[in-house]
Amino acid sequence: MEKLIEILSSVRQDIDFLNENKLIDNGIIDSFDLIAIVGELNEFYNVNIGVAELNPENFNSAQAILKLIEELKK
Amino acid sequence: MQLTSTLFFVFISIVVITYYLIDIKFQWIVLLIASYVFYYLASPKTLVYLIITTVSTFICGLIIQSSKTFKSGSNNSININLIQKIGQKKNIENVIILIAFLINFGILAFFKYYDSIFSNLNSIIFLSPKSEIPYSNLVLPLGISFYTFQSFGYLIDIKRGKIKSERNIAKFALFISFFPQIIQGPISRYSELAKQFFEEHKFNYSFFIYGSQLMLWGYFKKIVIADKLAPVVNTVFENFSNYDGVYILLASILYSIQIYCDFSGGIDIVRGLAEILGISLPKNFLRPFLAQSVEEYWRRWHITLGAWVREYVFYPLSLSKGLAKLGRFLRKFIGNYLGKLIPTFISMIVTFLIIGIWHGTQWKYIAFGLYHGSIIILEILLKPISNNILSRINYDREVFSWHLFKVSLTFLLVSIGRYFARADGFKYALRMLKRTFTNFNFINIFFNKNVNLGIDGKDVFVIIVSIAIVIFIELLQESGIGIRQKFQEQNAPFRWLILSILIISILVFGSYGIGFNENDFIYRGF
After folding, report:
1. Of B146, B169, B203, the domain-final residue
2. What CA–CA distance (Å, rounded) separates B227 from B457?
C-alpha cells in the first residue's frame, strides 16, 4: 500500500490518497490524472489496466486500486 | 425513401400496425424484415455491403467469444466446431479484430474516400486530364459510417468482456440494420440496444403519444427551420466573394443553426419512431448551443460519435505504452502539470482528426478536426490563467451575464469552425475567414438594403419566430423541466390546440411546393 500511495502522490501531491474514497465520484482526480496514474501502475506493477477497467469503482480509493491490481495479477 | 416523404409514412404505418398485431415472439422479425425492406427501398445497390459487414462482424464476434471461453477454460467438450478451433489459436483475438477492421473500414474508406483521395492525388501530381485517375462516382451505402462504427464497437466490447457475442445471425442483423437509426445514427451499443429488440412490446398509448410528439418536433426543426435556412446558407457560401464579412459570419452562424435543426430534427424523428415501437435509442444531443466551452459542446453534440471515439480511440491511445512512457519522461523533465497534459493532448488531436476524417477526407474536414482539438487544448491551458485573473479582480463567475458570455463565445467559436465544414474546400474556407476579418463592414447590415440573401421577408419572420420557439423550449429543458410530461399534464383542448398549430405550421410554413427540392438530411451524406 505504501508504494501505491507513493505512486499516486507522484501524480497528485495535494490529495490524501490514504483516506479519500470518492476520488472519481467527487471529481477529485480528473481524466488527465487518471491516465497518468494508470500509466504509472501498468509500468510499476507490470499489469495491463485497459479501458475496460476504467470504472469509478476501480479508482475511487487507493484500496480499490490495490484490489484491481491484485485481481489483474492473478 | 426520405423521412419526409409520403411513402415513409405509409411504410411506418404498416410496420407499426403489423408490429403490434403479430405474436410478441415475432416482433423482432417484423423489425428485421422492415429494416431490410427500408434499406432496399432507400439504397438498393448497396445492400450487399450492409450484408458483408453484418456477416463478417457476426463471424468475428463468434471467434473472439470462443477464444474468451477457451481461455476461461469453460469449454471442455471434445467435439468442437471450426469457429471454436480457430478461437483456440494464440493471439487470435487481435488478429480477428484486425481482419474485421480491414474488411469493414476498408469498404468504408473505399466508398467514402476514393474520390477525395484521388482528386487530391490528381491535383498534387498534376496529371493531364487524359492520364488522371478516374473518379468512381460510387453511391455511398446508406448509413455506412454509422453501421461500420456500431459493428466495430460490438467486436471491441466482446474482446473487453463487456458483452457476449450474439449467436443468432438474424438477431445480429437487426442490431446492425434497425431501420430508424440506419440513416444517420445514433450509433448504439449492443449492450443497450439489442436486448430491447427481444423483449415483449405491448402497445403503450403513452409511448405512442410521446414518440409521435418527438417526431413532430423533429419535423418542425427539419422542415420549418433547417430547410428554410438552406437557401440563405447556400447563397452566401457559394458566392461568398460578393458579400461583406459580416454576412459570411452570419451565414456561418445560420449554418450552425441549420445543421443542428437538420441533424437533431432527424434524430428526434428516429428516436420518436423507435419510442412508438417501445425501443429507447440513446440521446445524440443535449442542447449543444448552451455549452459554456467547446469541450462541453462536444459532450452535448453528436454524443454517440463522441462516446465512440472516446471509448475506442481516445482512452486506448492515452493508455498505450508509448504515450505512458512519454508522460513519465515529460513529468520528470518539464514538471508534473505539462507532463500530464501533453500525452493526453496528443490523443486528443488524434481523436479530433478521426472525427474530422469521419466526415470526409477533404483537407477541410481535417482542418475542422484540428481546429476543434486545438481550441479545446487552448481552453484547458488558459483555464487556470483566466481563473487566476478573475479571482484576483473579484469577478463573479456565477452570474447570468458571465454564463451568457461563455455560451455566446462558444457558439461563435463553433460557428467559425463551420467555415471549414461547409465551405467547398479548405482554400475557400481560408478565403472566407480572411474576408470575414479584413472586410467585416458590420455597419452594412443596417444600411445596405440591396443584399440578396436568397430569402424573402415572410420567411425571415417564420425563421426568427421558429428559432425563438426552439430556444424557449431548450431553455425550459435546461432548467430541468420535462417538456413532454408537463405538456401531457395539460387539458386535452390545450394540447390539441398546440399540436394543431405545430402540424399546421409544418404544412404551411415548411419548405414544399413546385420547384422546391426536398432537402435530404445533411448527415445522411456522412
Report:
1. B203
2. 16
The band of B77, judged by pLDDT with boundaries at 50, 70 and 90, is low
Residue that has been written with the C-alpha cell 455491403 in this structure: B49
ipTM of model = 0.85
What is the reported pLDDT for B472?
A: 95
B129 within some domain = yes
- B340 with A52: Cβ contact below 8 A: no
Q: Is A30 an 8 Å CB contact of chain B?
A: no
A50 touches A35 (CB < 8 A): no
Please give the model's pTM, rounded to 2 decimal places: 0.88
Contacts B160 to A, Cβ<8 Å: 50-52
Identify whether B288 is part of a domain: no
Number of structural domains (chain B) is 3
* Residues B340 and B397 placed together within one structural domain of the fold: yes
Q: How far does A43 lie from chain B, in Å, by closest CA?
A: 8
% of chain B residues with pLDDT over 70: 92
Domain A2-73 sits in CATH 3.40.50.720: no
**Whole-number pLDDT of residue B411:** 96
A38/B324 Cβ within 8 A: yes
Does residue B346 share a domain with residue B252? no
Do B232 and B116 lie in one domain? The reply is no
Task: Determine the structural domain holding residue B476 and report its residue range.
Answer: 216-281+425-526
Q: Taking CB atoms and an 8 Å cutoff, what residues of chain B touch A47?
A: none
B271-275, B391-395, B438-442: lowest mean pLDDT where?
B438-442
Cβ of residue A23 closer than 8 Å to a chain B Cβ: no
Stretch A51-63: mean pLDDT, rounded? 91
Give the separation between CA B378 and CA B444, rounded to whole angstroms: 33
Whether B310 and B257 share a structural domain:
no
Q: Identify the CA nearest to B224 among candidates B5, B506, B465.
A: B506
Q: Does A20 touch chain B (CB under 8 A)?
A: no
Q: CA B146 to CA B152: how far, in whole Å?
A: 10
What residue type is assigned to position B337 of the chain?
Answer: Y
How does residue B120 score in pLDDT terms, banded at 50, 70 and 90?
Answer: low
